[in-house]
Automatic annotation (TrEMBL):
GO biological process annotation, one example: glutathione biosynthetic process
Official protein name in the record: Glutamate--cysteine ligase
GO molecular function, one term: ATP binding
Keywords assigned by UniProt, alphabetized: ATP-binding, Glutathione biosynthesis, Ligase, Nucleotide-binding
Record's catalysed reaction(s): L-cysteine + L-glutamate + ATP = gamma-L-glutamyl-L-cysteine + ADP + phosphate + H(+)
PANTHER family: GLUTAMATE--CYSTEINE LIGASE (PTHR38761)
EC identifiers of the protein: 6.3.2.2
Gene Ontology terms: cellular component: cytosol
Gene name tied to this protein: gshA
InterPro entries: Gln_synth/guanido_kin_cat_dom (IPR014746), Glu_cys_ligase (IPR007370), Glut_cys_ligase (IPR006334)
HAMAP family: Glu_cys_ligase
Length: 523
C-alpha cells in the first residue's frame, strides 16, 4: 500500500512531541573590514584564538572572512541568543574593524592581495590552507569572498521510523529521508530565494572588468532590477569542471558514487596547472574537485567526520546525520545576519520537504527544470508576471508560492503545537505579504534604500555595518559568558600547538594518506 503525505502528516501529528528534539545550528560568515569599509588585511585576531580549532569562531576562504559557529539548539531563541553572544564576543576583540553585514563583498584589494586563510603549520592546518590555494587558482580569490548563512538542520532519530515505514534500519530510513528532503528542497528552494534573497546589488569593482549583464545604479554600484540574490547566480563566472557535474539525489549511494568520481577524476585544465609551483603546493590534486566540500550546492547531506576522515567515507559508513542549507543570504537588516522568523520558516519548510511526496528525478538523477526555476528567481524573481515551470506547466510565481505556503502551514502548526505558542504560524504568515507585495521582499527593500539614500552599495553597507556594530557593542556580555569565550580561545591555541607538535610525518606523506583514506562507496 502506497504511503501518502497525508498519512505521514497524520503520524507526525501523533508524534509531535518528537519535534521538540529538532536541532538547528548556524554558521554565519562575514568579512572583516576596516573603518572605511576596505577589506582588512590583518591576521585573524589573536583574541579569537586558533581558526583551526576554536569551535565558536573560525575563518572560511580568506583570513579576513570570519565564520561564527553556533552549537545545535532545540529552540530558535536560544540559537539566535548564542549567535548574538558570539558576535558580541568578536566585537569585543576587533580593534577598529567591522563585520561587513552583506553577502556581497566590501571593496576588495587586487586579487594578489586578498589573504588566504592560515591555520598554522600542522598537517591538518596546511591541508586546509593548500585547499584554499587551490580554490584561488581554480576560481579566483574574489569569488571566495562572498558570504552567507549556512543553516544546519536535523530531526530526532525516532522520527524517521514514524515518517518511513519501509523495510530497513534506522540508518537506512534516516538517509532515505534526508535525501528525499534534498530532492524536494531542490524543487522548491526558489521560494527561499524569493522570500529571503537579499543581494540584488554589488560594488562594480567586484566583477574585475569582466563582461556581465548587470545595470549601473550609480558610478560604483551594479544591480539587476528584479534580482533577489546575485550571490546565488553565476555572475558571469563559469567553471567548466563543476558545470558538468550532475550529482544524483535519488539515493545516497548514487550521490556518493558521483561525488567520488568528481574527487578522483583528473581535469585537463587543472593538470596543466599542476599541484606545485616553485616547490610549493598550490592545490591538493588536479581532479575535478580537490575534496568533497569544493562542490558548490545550495544544500548538502552531512555527517560529522573525524580527523583525516573523508566525508564520502563517513556518509557511506554511518549515513546522513543532518542537512546544511547554503543558499541563505546575510540579512542586512539583522545585526547577526538572520532573524527568528526566517529561522522558523526554514524549519517548517524543511519539515514540509521531509514529509511531502518526493518522487525520484529523471534517470540521470538531475532535474534541469528545478535548476532553471532557481536561476530564474535569483536573477528576476520580482519581475511582474513572472512564471515558473511546474512539472512542464507554466505557473505564476505568486500563485505557486501561495500554494506552497498553504502546504507548509500544517508543518508550522506542528512546530507550534509541539513547542507552544504561535511563532511558527506568524513566521509563515509574514511571508504571504512578500508574495502579494514584491516591494516588501529583502531584495526590493535594499534597492529602495540605495535609491532613496543616494548612497553607493559600499557607503550604504558600511553605514549599516557600523550601526550593527554599535548595537552589538552597546550591551556587554555577562562576565561568565565572556569568560567561557576567552577560555575557548585560549584552549584552541593550545590545541593547535598540540597538533603541530604531535605531527610525525611530513606534509607530502600526510596528503597522500588523506587521499588514500577515500574509499569508493558501494554502487
Amino acid at each position: 500500500m502506497t504511503d501518502t503525505a497525508a498519512n505521514r502528516l497524520s503520524r507526525l501529528e501523533a508524534n509531535r512531541s518528537l519535534l521538540t528534539q529538532t536541532l538547528r545550528g548556524i554558521e554565519k560568515e562575514g568579512l572583516r573590514v576596516d573603518e572605511q569599509g576596505l577589506l582588512a588585511r590583518t591576521p585573524h585576531p589573536a583574541g579569537l584564538g586558533s581558526a583551526l580549532t576554536n569551535e565558536h569562531v573560525t575563518t572560511d576562504y580568506s583570513e579576513s572572512l570570519l565564520e561564527l559557529i553556533t552549537g545545535t539548539h532545540t529552540d530558535v531563541d536560544a540559537l539566535l541568543a548564542e549567535l548574538t553572544n558570539t558576535h558580541r564576543h568578536v566585537y569585543g576583540v576587533l580593534d577598529h574593524e567591522l563585520i561587513w553585514n552583506q553577502s556581497m563583498p566590501a571593496t576588495l584589494p587586487p586579487e594578489a592581495d586578498i589573504p588566504i586563510a592560515w591555520y598554522g603549520k600542522s598537517n591538518t592546518g596546511m591541508l586546509k590552507h593548500v585547499y584554499r590555494r587551490g580554490l584561488a587558482v581554480r576560481y579566483g580569490k574574489t569569488m571566495q569572498c562572498i558570504a552567507g548563512v549556512h543553516y544546519n538542520f536535523s530531526l530526532a532519530e525516532d522520527l524517521w521510523s514514524v515518517l518511513d515505514t519501509q523495510p530497513g534500519t534506522v540508518q537506512d530510513r534516516r538517509s532515505r529521508g534526508y535525501i528525499g528532503l534534498i530532492r524536494n528542497f531542490t524543487r522548491y528552494s526558489w521560494l527561499l530565494m524569493y522570500l529571503f534573497g537579499a543581494a540584488p546589488a554589488l560594488s562594480s569593482d567586484f566583477l574585475r572588468g569582466r563582461e556581465h549583464p548587470l545595470r549601473k545604479l550609480d558610478e560604483s554600484t551594479l544591480y539587476l532590477p528584479y534580482a533577489t540574490s546575485l550571490r546565488m547566480s553565476d555572475l558571469g563566472y563559469q567553471n567548466k569542471a563543476q558545470s558538468q557535474l550532475k550529482l544524483c539525489y535519488n539515493d545516497l549511494d548514487t550521490f556518493l558514487g558521483r561525488l567520488y568520481g568528481a574527487v578522483t577524476q583528473p581535469w585537463p585544465d587543472y593538470q596543466k596547472i599542476g599541484t606545485h609551483r616553485d616547490g610549493e603546493w598550490i592545490q591538493l590534486n588536479t581532479n575535478v574537485l580537490q575534496i568533497e566540500n569544493e562542490y558548490y550546492s545550495s544544500i548538502r547531506p552531512k555527517r560529522a567526520t573525524g580527523r583525516c576522515e573523508r566525508p564520502i567515507t563517513a556518509l557511506a559508513e554511518r549515513g546522513v546525520q543532518y542537512v546544511e542549507v547554503r543558499c541563505l543570504d546575510i540579512d542586512p537588516d539583522s545585526p547577526v545576519g538572520i532573524d527568528a522568523a526566517t529561522s522558523r520558516f526554514v524549519d517548517a519548510f524543511l519539515l514540509f520537504c521531509t514529509a511531502s511526496d518526493s518522487p525520484f528525478f529523471p534517470a540521470n538523477g538531475y532535474c534541469q527544470r528545478s535548476a532553471d526555476n532557481f536561476s530564474t528567481v535569483v536573477k528576476e524573481g520580482r519581475k511582474p508576471g513572472l512564471t515558473l515551470d511546474r512539472e512542464g506547466q507554466s505557473i505564476g510565481l505568486a500563485q505557486w508560492g501561495h500554494e506552497l505556503l498553504d502546504q507548509i502551514a500544517p508543518y508550522a502548526a506542528l512546530f507550534d503545537s509541539a513547542l507552544g505558542g504561535s511563532a511558527y504560524a506568524e513566521a509563515l504568515a509574514a511571508q504571504r505579504a512578500k508574495l502579494d507585495h514584491p516591494d516588501s521582499t529583502p531584495s526590493a527593500r535594499l534597492l529602495a534604500a540605495l535609491t532613496e539614500s543616494r548612497l553607493s552599495f559600499h557607503d550604504y553597507s558600511l553605514d549599516l555595518s557600523r550601526k550593527h556594530a554599535d548595537t552589538l557593542r552597546a550591551q556587554a556580555l555577562p562576565a561568565d559568558i565572556a569568560s567561557s569565550y576567552e577560555q575557548a580561545a585560549a584552549q584552541s591555541v593550545a590545541e593547535q600547538l598540540r597538533l603541530e607538535q604531535s605531527d610525525t610525518e611530513d606534509f607530502d606523506t600526510y596528503v597522500a594518506r588523506y587521499h588514500s583514506a577515500l574509499k569508493a562507496p558501494r554502487t
